[in-house]
Structure formats: structure tokens, C-alpha cells
Amino acid sequence: MHPLPTYDDVLAAATRIAPQAHRTPVLRSRLLDERTGAELFFKCENLQRAGAFKFRGAYNALARLSAGQRRAGVVAYSSGNHAQAVALAARLLEIPATIVMPHDAPAAKRAATEGYGGRIVSYDRYTEDREEIGRDLADRHGLTLIPPYDHPDVIAGQGTVAKELLEETGGLDSLFVPLGGGGLLSGTALTVGALAPGCALFGVEPEAGDDARRSLREGRIVHIDAPRTIADGAQTQHLGELTFAILHRAAPTVLTATDVELADAMRAFASVMKLVVEPTGCLGFAAVPHVPERLRGRRVGVILSGGNIDLARYAALLNS
Ligand SMILES: *Cc1c(COP(=O)(O)O)cnc(C)c1O
Q1: Ligand 1: which of 78, 146, 184, 244 to mutate, most ligand atoms within 8 Å of CB?
Q2: Spatial separation of the C-alpha atoms in residues 279 and 268, rounded to whole Å
Q3: Do 122 and 247 reside in the same domain of the chain?
Q4: Is residue 2 situated within a structural domain?
Q5: Which of 23, 222, 234, 265 could form a disulfide with 214 if both were Cys (CB 3.0 to 4.6 A apart)?
Q6: What is the CATH number for 122?
Q7: pLDDT at residue 1 is higher than 80
């Protein structure tokens, strides 16, 4: 196992990604404040380059590769946003990228990945093991595998989201973060531990796949079948070794959100804030009402992690 990243690695990542990553806005909504009773601060990574926070971790990891590794190229496996992020970061750094992607990944995500110049290899997410396919490609062609969450440079890059948020808002009472494989939440935990140790950290995963909640409760990495949920960016089957180790130590509270709650949150963002947020990006906000005692008059941060969604699917979910 790699050594665990620290907040110093988050600081180094912030410097490394600054020339290319957007410093995304922190938006407020009087209406959503009234509805929840909290002072809400939304960190809008749906407005990040390539449409999600994943660009931060991907760019940070690729920028650290040696000249030889860059020449040989990189491979990534992803249900979408990590793929786009790696493809874009690779293009900016002039590194060839191969992306292993489920054949049923949203068309917009496939098209965007190809648009950035990534070469796509498809697989069946319910019967094949993407990690095995990625590792095999890496072995056969000398590519460097860039995992979507279980990598110290990826985790450190994702930790820059909360750094920017806390720099802008000052103290927060709590922070709600979408949770799949735990890259975003563990990076956030490093930052919160350093900048806002009193801030209560909440990770939110889809109810259909509550492996992280069970893992932290049982003190071991629990594996599950690929969960069926509209949150396609959080259909992970287990935490990583690094993300589990960081989260085990940081001990965030893990909550879950249903698909109905995610669609409700999507509608709220669309109608109230004029923001397109993909279902996975709504996880944090969808669980805010689950902890009413943490809300009244409190300062609450919410990470909107991404905004990539096919327009047809978006329209269908808004009308669901
Ligand atoms: C990947 C992703 C997540 C989950 O992030 P992890 O680091 O895997 O926990 C959440 N939201 C969006 C939009 C994503 O793309």
C-alpha cells in the first residue's frame, strides 16, 4: 500500500493544478436556506473543467508522472467522470490516454471522453471486472494505471475542493460530500482535519449501495454487487485501501440517499438555482434533511460534485 497522503499533499496538489483547474464558485440560495433552516454554501464542482471535481485528482496524478511514463501513456477505468477527467488532463499534458468504460455509460460521457482524444475500451459492468481489464492493458502496453479514487495523488487533488470552499466560507459546522469509492471524501477529510477540525463531516452514498457505511461500521472493506441507482458516479463496489484507511481514521458519518431524493434534489437545483447537477452530484444535498439537528441556524457546506448528464436522461429525471 502507498503511504497515506496528508494535507501537505493537498497543498502541493493545489499549486500543481492551479494553472488548469477552475476555482469553482461557492453559491448561496435564500430559498433553499429557508427550506432547510441552515445557511447553505454550495461548492459548484458541476462547473469544474470536464464537468466534475475528478479533473483535480486526475490532473494532479498525471502532472507527477516522469517523462518516460508520459511517453508510454496512461490507462483509466471509470463509469464516466474520471474517464473524461483523465482524457482532458492527458490532452493538456500531451499524454496518450486509454479509457476502460462500461458499454452502458451515458452517451454524453463517452462522447466527451472521445472528444478529448481518449481511446475507449468497453466492458460489461455487471459481468466483467474493470480493474482486471485496466491492469491487463497496463501490463501489456507499459501504461500507467490511474485509478479513480485509490491513489494518493488522486486523493490529494480531490482534497483541494474543500480547501477552496473553507478558504472562501471560513468556519463551517458541517460539510456534506457525495461518496463512491471515497476519493473525494477522504481528500476532504484531510483538508477538514487540517483547516476545520470542528466541522462535522458527512459522506453520502446511494441507498442501493451502502458499502462504505457498512465498511466503517465493521472496520473492514465490505464488497457489494454493482448497485443499481441513478447515481452512476457512485456505483462503486468497495472503498479502496487508502480511502478506507483515511476514512477509518477520520470517522465521518455516512448517510444514504434514495433515487427519489436525488431526483428531488436535481429539480431543486434546476428550478431554484438554475444549476444542472447530475444525480451523483446531488448525493450530499439529498441527505441534508436527514440530520435536522445539524441544520437550524448552522453553516453547512455542500459539495455539488458534478454536472455531466445526457440531456434526454436529465429531462426524464426532472419529470420523474
Ligand atoms: C466520482 C464521483 C463521485 C464519487 O467520488 P469518489 O471519489 O469515488 O467517492 C461523486 N460525484 C461525482 C459527480 C463523481 O463523478
Answers
A1: 184
A2: 12
A3: no
A4: no
A5: 222
A6: 3.40.50.1100
A7: no
Q: Is 320 a catalytic residue?
A: no
pLDDT of residue 58: 98
With cell 431526483, the residue in question is 263
205 has catalytic annotation: yes
Q: Is 57 in the pocket of ligand 1 (CB under 6 A)?
A: no
pLDDT of residue 239: 96
Say whether 228 sits in a helix, a strand or coil: coil
Tens of pLDDT, residues 113-135: 889 988 999 988 788 888 889 88
Q: How confident is the model at residue 101 (pLDDT cuts 50, 70, 90)?
A: confident
Question: Where is the domain boundary, 119, 145, 171?
Answer: 145
Query: Does residue 59 sit in the same domain as residue 204?
Result: no
pLDDT at residue 107 in the model:
79
Residues with Cβ within 8 Å of residue 14, at least 6 apart in sequence: 160, 163
DSSP classification of residue 153: H
Average pLDDT over residues 137-143: 93
Question: Grid coordinates in use for 271?
Answer: 428550478
Which of 145, 180, 209 is the last residue in one of the domains? 145
Count: domains in the chain: 2
Q: Same domain, yes or no, for 64 and 111?
A: yes
**Which position has the grid cell 445557511?**
39
Indicate which residue of 9, 207, 210, 211 is catalytic.
Answer: 211
- Domain containing 90 equals 55-145
Question: Is 271 annotated as catalytic?
Answer: no
> For all residues of the chain together, what is the average pLDDT?
95
**134 and 13 in a common domain:** no
Report the atom number in ligand 1 closest to the C-alpha of 280.
Answer: 11
